[in-house]
Write a structure and sequence with these properties.
The chain is about 65% helix and about 5% strand. It is globular and about 60 Å long. It starts with a helix and ends in a 29-residue tail after the last helix. The chain has a three-stranded antiparallel beta sheet, covered by helices on one side. α5 (about 115-135) runs antiparallel to α6. It has one domain (about 1-375). By secondary structure, it is mainly α.
Amino acid sequence: MEESLEEINQTSKLFIITTLILSVIGVIMVYSSSYILAQELFGNSNYYFFKQVTFLSVGTLIAFIVSKTKISFWVKYSHYINWFFAALLLATFFPGIGKSVKGAKRWIDLGFFGFQPGELVKYTILLSSVSLFDNFVMLDKREKINRVVGLLAPLLLLLLQPDFGSFSICLIIIAYACFLSDFPRKIFYYGFGFAVTAVIPILISQPYRVKRLFTFLDPWKNPQTSGFQIIQSYLGFANGSIFGVGLGNSNEKLFYLPEAHNDFIFSVIGEELGFIGVSTIVILFFAFTVFGQKLALLISNRKESMVISCVIFLITLQASLNMGVVLGLLPTKGLNLPFISSGGSSLLANAFGIGLVLSALNSYRKNMISQSSFFPNNQTYENPLSPSSPPIEKSFSASRLPR
């Protein structure tokens, strides 16, 4: 037990260090990719830098607070928390509350910054999915229907915003949580097939999504319009070559590459730090995934293990999709690079996810310590009434019976 606890502690340290390194790289690259744009828009080249540092500080505080709570609290009340954020998604459609950017109603205007509830909905759906599928057999029919409706409501609102990227990620995380649980395999495979079939007409129902698909297949067909962004991304990687042009020396961020400090920051990394920088980011996310999933495997409590595995999968999925888009391996979609891209809502949401991982680890550690104090020296005691125990009447030696 002590060896297992020590391995968990070592792995969690490596996990935290990897996360911190990614976050620090994010602060550096946000400043490098945005100081010219910030000077042009706000007259302050440090605008996005200070914004990223502020949100990282707040996110660190959120992660710390969440880590000190019990993971059972978040799982137990996940259904209600999920409905609360579904209400926030609905609020984005109301004038004066919601803010529309480029035709998408994804933000709530808080004055000092625009909050995107869809980022946190990914985690509330994650928790609600773990709670549903882990307790599926014990729930009655009415409760099952309520939980399923609670998952479908925010999915529908994400489609209406529209935010197909977040919708797809939420759908995948529901399937992943279901796969990890003891949910009946037959129903899972039928449901998965139905979901994939249903997503295809949704994908092609909007002309702009079809246009993005064709742009992905041949961006050079419209190099000045729909294909402009991904072509500029290609040029950034080409300019960077092996060692890059140097930190702060990117040409693409000089108003050539849209969203250089946000969705396409990975391209700026490729230009300024070259193949070495790109490989470093990929290795760090790979290490993040390995350490995180190892923690999930080391924990014997299934619910806590599921939460950790789902959080790591969610963050890794977003990182993989972003890098795939920027490299031209996937159709263009507005997904940022976790911990690195500029964006307060995403950074706070991912910090909440890290807090959930640490909360699950702390809960498991406390359980292990309490068990070790109850059973000193790693001794185990069998329940005399358990089927595996020998009958009580045979547990006494005949020689000790009084004559």
